[in-house]
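Consider this pair:
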Amino acid sequence: MVETDSSGAEAIEPTRIDTGLEEFGGQIADQVESFLVAVGAVANVGDDGRAISILLLELAQISLAGARLGAHVDFRPRSEFQPDVGTEGDADDLRRMLAAALGPVDTYEFVFDPYDPELLESRLSDDIASIATDLENGLRHYRLGNLVEALWWWQFSYVSSWGNLAGAALNAVWSVVHHSRLDVDLSVDDEAIAAADEMLSESPEG
């Protein structure tokens, strides 16, 4: 017998938590936390020669986490309303410090939708801060024990927002590496080229 709600519509069964889902959620949470810590370090330390290398690694890893979420079946929380996890953090300071660290390579252009192409101008600092805000919101759900809610939020926000931003930002950071390592001229001024070379002078492990 199919269960229905009070309106007679078919009821959707909430996602059941099992060992596999707990392990999956823990892996995503670890990647989210790693991203947030690394981005915070880049913002706080500024340009110490490793900003681009760190962002290249972290954007690639969080994009992989997002792809895993996007490929997963939809998560279904018990309630259609999100539990209160407190006030959202202020991303303005993060955005400002990232802009200072990235300097002349902060501004870039990208195509938001390849099936409806339009060239847009954006800033790495804006996009990374926005990604961090979405990820941090899900992490607060996770830390409060709301596993399915956290996974639902990460999945929904990946599909609707931060997945596209992470892909665009990763491509922009890759482009800095490409231009610097292959000695291909950037279509920006000499200051930006020098900044890219300096940012890549050391590896994240260096």
The domain at 20-78+89-199 is CATH 1.20.120.1550 (Four Helix Bundle (Hemerythrin (Met), subunit A)). The beta strands are 107-111, 119-123. The helical segments are 19-45, 51-71, 92-102, 124-143, 147-181, 190-199. The two ends are 62 Å apart (CA to CA).
